[in-house]
Specification:
alpha/beta, globular, Rossmann fold, eight-stranded mixed beta sheet
């Protein structure tokens, strides 16, 4: 039997409560066995701005999930070719896992709407299920149109691709509205971010003088 494994990638600069809520909501939606948070070593879409050192971003993630046994952190993108492309990560996970994995890629609607620009996007779609979170009805309509263009058909509570034999599950769950850029700006202003990120992460940021300048 395959292990149902959620994948949540991102820059995590820094990890915030929205990331954790997204992971946990996906786990409940699709009854996942585990969720792996994978920080991008060199995000392909953010090469025009300075990213916090990978070791700091990993350390903050480890602190954020230490009391959440269903969440794990993987540093595999540090070993893979740069920049960090989703297809390379998915292939590596499938080839190097000790058990058969049934992958569920967790993503926000805005990011999924750009999937046609992803490296080998058809290979990505054939390698993993998707769990797509959306906030508005207008975005949902765009998503559903894209699902159809990509070859998915509606099946009860999800969309299914007959050739890829993969599904897309969509959700409009109300999740915390927070972004890493918002956290960085608040820290730069000298404001408390304890309501936006785990306290242990906030303490780490302070101790290591991150996002101050």
């Amino acid at each position: 039997m395959n292990r149902k494994t959620g994948i949540l990638g991102g820059t995590f600069d820094p990890v915030h409560n929205g990331h954790l809520a997204l992971a946990e909501a996906a786990g409940e939606l699709c009854d996942l066995s585990e969720i792996v948070l994978i920080p991008a070593a060199v995000p392909p879409h953010k090469q025009n701005r300075e990213i916090t050192d990978f070791s700091h971003r990993v350390a903050m993630l480890e602190l954020a999930v230490r009391e959440k046994p269903e969440l794990h952190v993987s540093t595999i993108e540090q070993m893979l070719p740069k920049p960090s492309f989703t297809i390379d990560t998915l292939v590596y996970l499938q080839l190097h896992s000790a058990v058969d994995l049934e992958l569920f890629f967790i993503i926000g609607a805005d990011a999924f709407l750009d999937i046609l620009s992803w490296k080998k996007y058809k290979s990505v779609l054939s390698a993993t299920h998707f769990i797509v979170f959306s906030r508005s009805g207008s975005v949902n309509r765009k998503l559903h149109e894209l699902f159809k263009i990509l070859g998915y058909k509606k099946r009860n509570d999800h969309w299914y691709h007959k050739t890829f034999q993969k599904s897309i599950f969509s959700s409009s769950s109300l999740l915390p509205s927070v972004s890493s850029s918002e956290v960085r700006k608040e820290i730069h202003k000298g404001n408390s971010v304890n309501k936006l990120i785990p306290v242990a992460v906030s303490e780490y940021i302070t101790a290591n003088h991150l996002y101050c300048s």
